[in-house]
Amino acid sequence: MANLSQKAFGWAATDTSGVLSPFHFSRRENGADDVTIKILYCGICHSDLHTAKNEWGFTKYPVVPGHEIVGLVTKTGSNVESFKVGDRVGVGVLVGSCRTCDICQQDLENYCRKMIFTYNSTDKDGTRTYGGYSDIIVVDQHFVLRFPDNLPSDAGAPLLCAGITVYSPMKYYGMTEPGKHLGVAGLGGLGHVAVKFGKAFGLKVTVISTSPKKEAEAINKLGADAFLVSSDPVQLKAAMGTMDFIIDTIAAVHPLAPLLDLLKMNGKLVTVGLPDKPLELPIFPLVLGRKLVGGSDIGGMKETQEMLDFCGKHGITADIELIRMDYINTALERVSKSDVRYRFVIDVGNSLASL
After folding, report:
1. What global pTM score does this model have?
2. Enoyl reductase (ER) domain: which residues (predicted)?
């Protein structure tokens, strides 16, 4: 077993109520390939809520959520050459993989069957992984990211999950061709970043939402070209067959048929939201329009770094509401109601004093 000698402090959920409370624990001592990071900021992802409440069925309590982490390097191992003490770095959804399989060799560690999640996972030394709702974290250097100088730590943190979750499928499925028409279904933490990426890639972007009150913000603030109310049959009919791609970020159970109808022939619907129940997939519109339904899950380390650098170059950040750690349970309650524009970020460095 590892030498768990670094005292750590965070907030953990201990049962399916999902309520978090102060939690003292230990992290491993920094190894030769490790980087110890003082956490400054951590974004709140919908996955944190699902996991805290065991809605996906594989939570092991106690669980310290958080996988959108930005902080400062405080210690480096003897083999670490890419990072030095004082560097600003990021840690995303994964902190380990086998590094040897075909998938890892393609820089797609996020699909490795032995992937180790930043929290609620078993590390290679047999210990539990605890996430970023805490003061420090120790991570193998391969899974640490350089944070571009011009990217703010707080508004940049959500890019480590929300950002790469939409960037990766946009690159893989060819949603980068200027002039093509992208629909973004759901305007939350993922969706609002997808709009910004779409515009940076030169696409025409239409936001598809159940909430008419988000229209002004989508167009005036985020730069979307158009807004479609998905519960309005007149609007849906007018937009049928107009989109090349739709990226579906909706985390709740919802009908796919209206989205498929919006696609042109050869259109692609790519889903990145993770509803807790299966969705119904109508086959007729796929067959009659040669359409494709796909999925995607974050990205590997190389692509995540590429995404961060792209955001630095184009000035892309998340729109955030900065909170203190003791607001966490209220924040998670608001996440469950989609009551945030568009991502909570915990000011860990300034609010996580040991209780």
Report:
1. 0.94
2. 18-346
